Amino acid sequence: MSTISLRGITLGLDDHGGGANALLLVHGHPFDRSMWLPQVEPAKRAGWRVIAPDLRGYGETTVVEGRTPFAEFAADLAALLDHLEVQQVVLAGLSMGGQVVMEFARLYPSRVRGLVLAATFPQAETEDGRRNRNAAADRLLREGMDPYAEEVLPRMLASRSIETLPTVAHHVMRMMRATDPEGAAAALRGRAERPSYDATLAALRVPALVVVGSEDAFTTRHDAERMRDLITGSELLWMEGSGHMPNLEQPDVFNAGLLRLLERVGRLEQ
To answer: How many domains does the chain divide into?
Structure first.
């Protein structure tokens, strides 16, 4: 674990392994980089350098009030890679993290070697969605994270996961409760203004993996197939029985897909 200073903030991160092949893991809302713990060692054993930062407003990274546009998150990630002297990277993002990854691909396409898009979707926010995101941000500032965390846990994890994986459920609750309401609210306000990423995905010519769970309360089979169809040559991993956090609920299945993707990227460089 370490922290670095860049772009006026202090950013918390884990940086595992070394070598020319780098994987950047981007967490979702309202979580932190610890959500990727089951993926770190398998990717590292496969010979990849694994970089897992906390986004601004989350975990150990500086909280910035107001609104955090996705372009700001993406610029932080680009500055982090510059600091670490990593030019190109495979990016994996879950939920909001997946949309941040898509924003990174929109702004810095030459730096993308591959993508993992988990439990996410590329559509721009709707008018109703914007109102709901901003109302949720107001609520977090007014009530704090605890009521939100209790309410949303059954939508983050499949009901069977909550029953049979108490350690995972505890981890998810801990991350949500520990998140600073100001940072989470700023991210929600930024998320409300995101663009469509359809054109970004259609322009990609890199290996990609789309992962969605059958019990995901936020992402549908249609969303998953749409992303798969937009990205030429991508793979869809449909995870039966998994909710919105497939990397934690079924890590073996998720990791097998991740490693297939990393192997594809590696073969292209040979």
So the answer is: 1
Report the predicted TM-score, pTM, of the whole model to 2 decimal places. Answer: 0.96
Contact 198, 122 (CB under 8 A): yes
- 126: helix, coil or strand? coil
pLDDT bracket for residue 269 (50, 70, 90): low
Q: What is the Cα–Cα distance from 123 to 30, expressed in whole angstroms? A: 20
Residue 28: alpha-carbon gap to chain centroid: 4
- Tell me which residue range forms the domain holding 120: 2-268
Question: For residue range 211-259, what is the model confidence (pLDDT) as tens digits?
Answer: 999 999 999 999 999 999 999 999 999 999 999 999 999 999 999 999 9
Inter-residue contact 133 to 125 (CB < 8 Å): yes
Kindly report the backbone phi and psi dihedral angles of residue 10, in degrees, each rounded to the nearest multiple of 5, phi listed first: -100, 125
pLDDT for residue 1 = 61
Cβ–Cβ under 8 Å, residues 73 and 192: no
Helices 251-268/37-45 angle, 10° precision: 40
Residues 73 and 20: beta-carbon distance below 8 Å: no
CATH number at residue 133: 3.40.50.1820
**Which of 229, 159, 243 lies closest to 201, judged by CA?**
229
H or E segment at 200?
helix 198-203
Of the candidates 240, 12, 189, 209, the one whose C-alpha atom is nearest the C-alpha of residue 120 is 209
| pLDDT at residue 270 greater than cutoff 80 | no
CA distance 226 to 222: 6
Task: Write down the mean pLDDT value for the chain.
Answer: 96
Calpha distance 124→192 (Å, rounded):
8
Please give the helix or strand (H or E) that residue 107 lies within, else none. helix 96-107
